[in-house]
Task: structure prediction
Amino acid sequence: MLDQYGRNITYLRLSVTELCNLRCRYCMPEDGVCKKRHEDMLTEEEMLSAIRACASLGIRKLRITGGEPLVKPNLVSLCAQASQVEGIEELCLTTNGVLLPALAKPLHEAGARRLNISLDTLDEEKFRYITRIGKLADVLRGIDAALEAGFEKIKINAVLIGGFNDNEIADLAALTKRLPIDVRFIELMPMYDSGDFGPEAFIPYTKVTEALPELEPLPADGSVARLYRLPGAQGNIGLISPVSAHFCKECNRIRITCDGKIKPCLHSPDELSLKGLSEDEMREQLRSAIFCKPQWHGELSYTARSRAKRNMNQIGG
Ligand code: SAM
Ligand code: SF4
Result:
């Protein structure tokens, strides 16, 4: 369906939980989330109704996200049903990878075809620091499990953080030489409470092209990333710049949170509720949300923070 600015909205990001088994400093507070009431969350049936309603309005790509989606107990069953919804052509997940050794195969069997795995550093101690509680080895095992399970596409998402991982750009990018995966560098977004990072932490995507002069540009593939490849690599490098060069003109997505709020724009405070609605009512609510999608997300910088009144684990990225 077209929004009021003529953008064709074909991509839904559905956050299935706010809970997470990590505590990334730029994403959520150290003490986790204040658990919401179970009855305020979308049920599995409501999530499926919302997916069907979205598909009937032209959504073709579905990404399951969180919090950490893999901590949701009924995730495999939800994916198996979601992948069968008429109109949904592509089922993808974004995960921190920790639970992939157990779940990569069942998720692939349930119809998931693409995985984005978040990994900001290849250093064990830095990994523990940025995630507050995580073990790097778990994610590396998760990547191996995903490769073994046969996903069509695996992308590593690394958030660019000045003073933290800007000295690891080459090492992270080199993963595309060793493995058949893409690596995408994403600018740190100044969320409601995205940790204790100062202005030096917000570095532009151009740091990557400066650090890797050998990058060869590739034609755009319709995603939000600028694409490149290292000579001889098996996968691509993607640069995603929501802060320094926003891509709102090409935005084709809407989001639904696990508490049933449609977010027509990641950084807007506007939300419309789906909780408790029938599938037909959901369709009408989604139609208005898509039509009214804001033209752009407004200024974002270290001082101009996102207007979304949520942290990233409550939206899904
Ligand atoms: N837990 C899963 C994961 O980490 O991949 C999925 C949810 S997480 C909120 C989705 C993506 O948002 C991750 O790639 C994460 O790195 C990114 N993210 C979280 N907070 C961010 C921020 N402040 N700026 C940029 N990216 C952020
Ligand atoms: Fe959890 Fe993902 Fe947020 Fe890290 S980025 S705290 S893994 S939801």
Remarks:
- The CA atoms of residues 18 and 67 lie 4 Å apart.
- Residues 20, 26-27, 65-66, 68, 94-96, 118, 157, 159, 186, 188-189, 191, 194, 312-313, 316-317 surround S-adenosylmethionine (ligand 1) (CB under 6 Å).
- The longest strand covers residues 153-160.
